[in-house]
Amino acid sequence: MPSSLADLLLRQSPDAVIFAGLDGVIQVWNPAAEAMFGFPAAEAIGQDLNIIIPEPFREAHWTAYDRALAAGDTKYRGQAMPTRARRADGSEFYIEMTFAIVKDETGTVLGALAHCRDITERFERDRSQRRRLRELEAELERLQGPAATP
């Protein structure tokens, strides 16, 4: 694939595409990542991934990141994984991420690739539906009352 096509695909991807090297420093940050996280590429590239990881999740993230790079694979490869992320303004939101460990032609691990999608609306809608279901179940239980039990 010509590099110009690869560049076009990266720039026009509807999902945020992020690549970080072995040290966790961001090397690739596409326009969708700029829009989603609020960091311009010039600001994000060269920073470590902590700029988008909420503080409570950082330790677990780095443990899993180091483990995956050392193994040369991740158990989450190809699986959409929901998590929380942090925007440039400090606000948090829900994303779905897929991961891959990137290797060169000799099999040497170069870093990790992530594709991210904002799922905040879906997450909030699902949470609202679960809350409503619990309310309806409680109301049904109340209406059935003790007479419904044998």
Automatic annotation (TrEMBL):
Short name of one Pfam family: PAS_4
Residue ranges occupied by any PAC domain in the UniProt entry: 79-131
InterPro entries the UniProt entry points to: PAC, PAS, PAS-assoc_C, PAS-like_dom_sf, PAS_4
Coiled-coil positions: none
Residues annotated as transmembrane: none
PAS domain: residues covered: 9-72
SUPFAM superfamilies tied to this protein: PYP-like sensor domain (PAS domain) (SSF55785)
NCBIfam families: sensory_box
Name assigned to this protein: PAS domain S-box-containing protein
Organism: Tepidiforma thermophila (strain KCTC 52669 / CGMCC 1.13589 / G233)
